[in-house]
Amino acid sequence: MKALRRAHRFLRRLVRLLFALLVRSRRHYQPLSPPPPPTASAAAEDPPPPPSPPDPDRDADADANADLVSLKISLLGDCRIGKTSFMIKYAGGDDGEEQRGLHLTGLNLMDKVLVVRGVRIGFTIWDVAGDSRFLDHVPIACKDAAAILYMFDLTSRCTLNNVVEWYQRGRRWNETAISILIGTKFDDFVQLPLEMQWTIINQARAYARAMKATLFFSSATHK
Fold first, then answer.
1. Per the domain annotation, does 29 fall within a domain?
2. What pTM, to 2 d.p., does this model score?
């Protein structure tokens, strides 16, 4: 069950990948310098406005999110391959972690906050329905995403074949996101004949190499 154990380590490895990306990108940013104080003549001509009354709720929200780093993750793949179950399993609230979700037509969103090396990272996960009616959601789901997870059903080669089109759609709207290939329903996959298992695994590995993606197998029914 080595592949299944790898699947259970998925979220931790993904967090480390994204955290490394974050550390590299933050080197290019410098804190803004405070604005220069107004000159004496300007102060005399245009007196400053009176201070606004304090807003306790706004100040509390600002303090709570001051150290929060936001990262966006998108999930793409065919219908009925287990994307939503995957999202609930790996992004569902446990261990006291902060999480919340929102369901729209053809689009599921879930937020999860993790602490990685002392940094609070807020993940926003965008799960696009695989039906062709909802392809209009792909651009907004992929825009500014740090990682795109291309998902398929390990028991259905058709869904694996369709990964090519999903990858093309994702790259069309985001060429810099980390690509990750996820095979779902591993518990059903291991019941297939060994020859078929190896055929699917080899095809998935070939796709992962072409996509320069990390390959994971996952089961939503196993912890």
1. no
2. 0.72
